Amino acid sequence: MTTAAPAKPARRTPLARTGAARSSAESRIVRSIGEAIADRRLPPGTKLTEESLAEAFGVSRERVRKVLLLLAQRRVVTLIPNRGAFVAKPSPKEAREVFEARRVIERAIMERLERLPRPLSDDMLEKLRGHGALEDAAERAADRKAMIRLSGQFHLLLAEFAGNATLAGILTDLIDRSSLAIAAFERRSSHTCSADDHRRLIAALIGNRPGEATALMIEHLDDVERQLDLEAKTDTRIDLKAIFADEPEPT
Amino acid sequence: MTTAAPAKPARRTPLARTGAARSSAESRIVRSIGEAIADRRLPPGTKLTEESLAEAFGVSRERVRKVLLLLAQRRVVTLIPNRGAFVAKPSPKEAREVFEARRVIERAIMERLERLPRPLSDDMLEKLRGHGALEDAAERAADRKAMIRLSGQFHLLLAEFAGNATLAGILTDLIDRSSLAIAAFERRSSHTCSADDHRRLIAALIGNRPGEATALMIEHLDDVERQLDLEAKTDTRIDLKAIFADEPEPT
DNA sequence: GCCTCCAGAATTGTGCACAATCTGCGCGGT
DNA sequence: ACCGCGCAGATTGTGCACAATTCTGGAGGC
């Protein structure tokens, strides 16, 4: 930021550890960028220059390139050939699809959780309550970043309880993309934060009135989606293109 | 195959086109390997040496490396650091999870299809019937490879009709992983091929008796899973470990 | 004043050389 | 005879240099 010295290639730690240590460093970077996108330090459309990221994380450009490829596969960043990587900017259609996919998967998860033998295991109860406390704390502190992260983790926690790591993995991606959709389409106004919904969900799960937790989850997801402004005004550029699409050419 | 001349690095086409043409070449390779895995020309556990693949496809090793990274992300190949890439060998647990995930997603897809206004669009009817004919033909010709490919495409076709590209994309991965699971766990015996199930599904969809198509789909997926031998004898190594786990040490 | 075009800068893409690691095998010691 | 040790050979991992492309700013013409 201060000096514009491009000659220093940001040498990484002297002992360049290789092997397993590297892979964890990569997933660390993936997670780090993922979180930054989720809590909007990196808004949709942001250009992600390889060199800058390499410098920021103290790794080589190739490593960053690999990470970007992974993130692109998860639809969190968009890779445009010869143009670079950008934080993905979902279309309203895609946003709706993501929420629909979440409803499909999370309904199934809730149905499985409701089918679990009662009472729920102590481990589960403890984790649920612990997480609830964390969300409450974040809400009281008005720590928006923490709230966003915890909200995602809550849904993931439920997925893990359902005991299907494959579904949980799919949901992980969908949650990241939800964050992106929220960042792109959130209305200026309102946003009754979802900690309250989560509280009710936890209570319903523990209480086990058949169908209640599932219904609450669907309603919760609907609520979040409804708080978005998904009218189809994606981009000025695209609008112009559409408007002048069938203008006759003035030779 | 005939000569073992390793000195020739399999030069790619003289004019190394760059840009958009490259990305399509990559997805071509991904698809090609994916299909080879699906129809068992590449059984689970097969070592995928970068150099061999590069030679086979006439591209550089780096390109192959990128493709393998993508396939690994989709859990179709397993990447072991410093050891290389292998065709993934799902555990019985993972196989079950994949089929459960498919039931979750494909049930939702069928419910949406059943909710479609009737009669179905000509386009849909034509594609359904056309696909049915293809499957019949493959069955009559006993073309196992074609049957496997068409079977996957059938499920994907339904997903596309449901109009949610995100769900369809998720299902694409799950179908590939199903193929892997089938390759890994199929019983020697039987295998009443699923073309018949698909025929009935098409009929139920067109007929539109509420819930029938959805029920058939669930049953179909259950059938396919039941035809697998998912008893937990994943690996000899692990069996030994389990068997001798609580043997007293003979010092 | 505005548009077009072009050179230089910045950024991404790719081949290559070499380093790091794993595997298989032979050799010597006990 | 058996076990560890270590040395090739093969394979993967990574930094780097350079090629290709896009972007930017400004000069020149209309």
TrEMBL record, chains A, B:
Identify the InterPro entries for this entry: GntR_C, TF_FadR/GntR_C, Tscrpt_reg_HTH_GntR, WH-like_DNA-bd_sf, WH_DNA-bd_sf
- List all Low complexity biased stretches: 1-18
Please give the superkingdom of this protein's source.
Bacteria
Q: Which residues form the signal peptide?
A: none
Question: Residue ranges of region Disordered?
Answer: 1-23
Q: Name one Pfam family in it.
A: FCD
Report the residue ranges that make up the HTH gntR-type domain in this protein: 23-90
**What GO MF annotations does this protein's record show?**
DNA binding; DNA-binding transcription factor activity
SMART domains from the UniProt entry: FCD, HTH_GNTR
Name of the protein this chain belongs to: Transcriptional regulator
Q: Which UniProt keywords apply?
A: DNA-binding, Transcription, Transcription regulation
